[in-house]
Specification:
The complex is a heterodimer of chains A (399) and B (386). By secondary structure, chain A is α/β, with parallel strands linked by helices. Chain A contains twelve helices and twelve strands. In chain A, helix 8 packs across helix 11. With 386 residues, chain B is of the alpha/beta class. Classes of the chains: A alpha/beta (399), B alpha/beta (386).
């Protein structure tokens, strides 16, 4: 059976060049990057090269990159680290509760970290978004308090692809002298990132979203940032993130970042053309379908559509059985499907959130893949609508 | 180098044998019965897709969890993993589908409300009629499977003369589950398959072992899947608290048949008709619950003889194997899962309501349970006792 993968926002395949770069560090070059001897020095050299490669992707300096286990750890480290250090900071007033500003459409790694802090007494403001998923920088300004210690706003949304106005947010943060963190897991490698242009203090990256392996990520921390560590251990990575370095993973992330830096512009051009073709094709072939987040600035690879009258969960399974992999709003450990908090935040009623599917393209998506998708999705939607009592009733009422 | 190609070619994934033709969905609980169904159908050359329903979040009502892990209940994650392991072993696609909302509104909430109204509900019947053979069957059809197979012990047969699907008792009478399936419509029956209906439990175990199913030795689950440790009273308390309507601690009176107060009880949901235990007092002769009146919050008790009645009414009747007959009708009527069907006359008393009169009085006819009418092995109809 032909299988087409349109779920690159969930994860990507490790690029062959990345794998090739990593392989020696599992066996021949197995040294601990902290060891003094030659084995260690060779591993150290590979780690530091990777640090430079990752730094170059986001316009940072190498010493501002810390390797982590992935996006979730990076987000948690940024949020807990800033809030914890604000408690011990000499110039913060001792009585006031620290305050964080984030948005309703963040990834769970950010939302749940904030909720955990809220239970410990930290005040959290969740900025609303418009119907395309964008926050308004004026809302951000209005939400600022003198106790605000952190603004955490994602760069690109995983479900919609909506890109937040980081440059404007950075300006507000700078003016207010508040630390600014961005979860850039879904934008890195897809659109340009410049930590100085955005005036970012912290930024999270994940390897497996940009053709590096799962289990490796990075946190950018601007030199002057007061960030408390999350883990306690040895002196690795200057004590900011102890734990023996995952050398092979780090090498993979570095290589992937380098490839992304070079191929970003071409990938973006090619993918946005394919994505637009997919969207227009679906809008033409599936009656009443709509694009979620259509008017926003979006990452070039993400399409999120609502197919009224369809249970997204059933459509996803039906498409998978036909060989097309995509995703619904959100997946949980048990497979429970709750309406996506992102689609709810942009104002979709529950039944439309549940009728939405996300198609995310990637470096290996071809024209043939899009042709295949345009063949199976309209047929799949039609099959489901035939069996939907509510849709048939509504369709009858309209005619 | 070869890895370069493999990394970018998703169609090189190991292929499954089946095509989409004649796709059959199997409702997989993770137990040995439904797993064997999947194995059997695959052996017959059918294309199988496994569906496991996520029905109840075990993390809800955490106070009920007790000490041990939440094992061997139909909605636990362990069971989901077991179903997935079977699908991996047999190499067919498997998906977890979420019906928590439907399960709560159509099974759990009515279950609690019935107990609080002094009735003794059967959650499994609602689950069959309103979840398995409703949204799950629809999901099966939406993903391209025309039929749904389950691990129920019962049989479906097409009557060529009448054109109807008939529901029959399982060959293995000790495992027969036809009592829980009387709510199915002709449409639902025509799209359902019960491959275990001709088999005994022992044969099913043997088949499971022969197919090397990872669940071949898994113990049977007997409890209500959403009630930990079988303690439904505690569940009703916890669920009512969660919904913001905690049960009153006031309780009510226990009275004899003459209306004389002879004791107190702590809530009508603690009782079912015919119950002897838990009345909280010793009497000369054994006393049993005769009836429960939620209006007055009274539990009426009496001697065993008073429990036996000939006549009662049922509602929400569904004709299964036969079209509505020219009535009255003679049938063997079964009034609870562990009751031997007894001969009775059945006469209509209104829309989908019937009066049933046994030839000889039967013990503990209980509101909330089902009365299922049999003609030999055939399920003629079923209805709720009111």
């Amino acid at each position: 059976m032909k299988r087409v993968y349109l779920d690159y926002n969930a994860t990507t395949s490790v690029e062959p060049e990345v794998l090739d770069a990593m392989l020696p560090y599992f066996s021949a070059e197995f040294g601990n990057a902290s060891s003094i001897h030659t084995f260690g020095q060779r591993a150290r050299a590979a780690v530091e090269t990777a640090r430079e490669q990752v730094a170059a992707l986001i316009g940072a300096r190498a010493q501002e990159i810390f390797f982590t286990s992935g996006g979730t750890e990076s987000d948690n480290h940024a949020i807990f680290g800033i809030v914890s250090s604000s408690f011990t900071s000499a110039n913060s007033s001792t009585s006031a509760r620290p305050h964080i500003i984030t948005s309703l459409v963040e990834h769970e790694a950010v939302l749940n970290a904030c909720q955990a802090l809220a239970k410990q007494g930290v005040a959290v403001t969740y900025l609303h978004v418009d119907q395309d998923g964008s926050i308004d920088p004026q809302d951000l300004e209005a939400a600022l308090r003198k106790e605000t210690v952190l603004i955490s706003i994602m760069h690109a949304n995983n479900e919609l692809g909506t890109v937040q106005p980081l440059e404007e947010i950075g300006r507000v943060a700078k003016q207010a002298d508040v630390y600014f963190h961005s979860d850039a897991v879904q934008s890195a490698g897809k659109i340009p990132i410049d930590v100085n242009q955005f005036q970012l203090d912290l930024l999270s990256l994940s390897g497996h979203k940009l053709y590096a392996p799962k289990g490796i990520g990075a946190l950018y921390v601007r030199g002057s940032t007061r960030l408390k560590q999350l883990l306690y251990g040895g002196h690795h990575q200057r004590g900011v993130r102890p734990g023996t370095e995952n050398v092979a993973g780090i090498v993979g992330l570095g290589k992937a970042a380098e490839i992304a830096r070079h191929s970003l512009a071409n990938d973006a051009k090619r993918l946005s053309a394919l994505r637009d073709q997919l969207e227009h094709g679906l809008l033409n072939r599936v009656p009443h379908s709509r694009i979620n987040g259509a008017r926003a600035v979006r990452t070039p690879n993400t399409a999120n559509l609502v197919f009224p009258g369809v249970e997204g969960e059933a459509l996803l399974i039906a498409l998978d059985l036909k060989g097309l992999a995509c995703s619904t709003g959100a997946a949980c450990s048990s497979g429970a499907v709750e309406p996506s908090h992102v689609l709810t935040a942009i104002g979709l009623p529950t039944e439309e959130a549940r009728a939405s599917l996300r198609f995310s393209l990637g470096r290996h998506t071809t024209q043939a893949d899009i042709d295949f998708a345009l063949q199976v999705i309209p047929a799949g939607v039609e099959q489901l609508r035939q069996l939907s009592p509510t849709y048939q009733k509504e369709a009858a009422a309209k005619t | 180098m070869t890895t370069m190609k493999a990394a970018t070619q998703f169609d090189t994934l190991p292929e499954r044998r089946e095509t989409q033709q004649d796709l059959v969905a199997v409702a997989m609980s993770g137990g040995v019965d439904s797993s064997t169904v999947a194995a059997l159908l695959q052996q017959q050359g059918r294309s199988v897709v496994g569906l496991t329903m996520q029905l109840w979040n075990q993390r809800r009502l955490p106070m009920l969890q007790g000490d041990g892990p939440a094992q061997h209940r139909c909605c636990s994650l362990d069971d989901v993993y077991d179903a997935k392991a079977v699908a991996r072993h047999l190499n067919f696609p498997h998906y977890v589908v979420n019906f928590e909302e439907q399960f709560e509104s159509r099974v759990v909430r009515p279950f609690v409300e019935h107990y609080l109204a002094g009735r003794t509900p059967i959650a499994c019947t609602n689950c069959n009629t309103d979840v398995k053979f409703e949204p799950l069957l629809r999901m099966a059809r939406q993903i391209g499977a025309e039929r749904l197979a389950t691990g129920h012990y019962a049989r479906i047969r097409r009557n060529e003369a009448t054109g109807r699907r008939e529901l029959l008792r399982a060959r293995d009478e000790t495992k027969d589950q036809s009592y829980f399936l009387w709510g199915l419509t002709q449409e639902q029956l025509s799209r359902s398959e019960f491959p275990l209906g001709e088999l005994s439990k022992g044969e099913v175990r043997t088949l499971a072992r022969r197919a090397n199913l990872p669940v071949a030795e898994k113990p049977d689950s007997m409890e209500l899947c959403f009630v930990p440790n079988g303690d439904y009273v505690q569940f009703i308390h916890a669920y009512s608290r969660e919904r913001g309507t905690p049960l009153s601690e006031a309780g009510g009176e226990i009275v004899n048949e003459d209306g004389e107060v002879i004791g107190r009880h702590n809530g009508v949901h603690n009782f079912t008709i015919g119950q002897r235990k838990g009345l909280g007092f010793a009497a000369g002769k054994p006393l049993y619950v005769l009836s429960i009146d939620p209006q007055t919050n009274r539990v009426v008790v009496g001697e065993d003889e008073a429990l036996r009645r000939r006549s009662f009414e049922v509602e929400s009747l569904n004709w299964v194997s036969i079209a509505p007959p020219p009535v009255p009708l003679r049938a063997s009527v079964k009034i609870r899962h562990k009751h031997d069907p007894a001969p009775a006359s059945v006469e209509p008393i209104g829309q989908n309501c019937m009066r049933i009169t046994f030839d000889t009085p039967q013990r503990a006819i209980t509101p909330g349970q089902a009365a299922v009418f049999y003609d030999g092995d055939r399920v003629l109809a079923g209805a709720w006792i009111r």
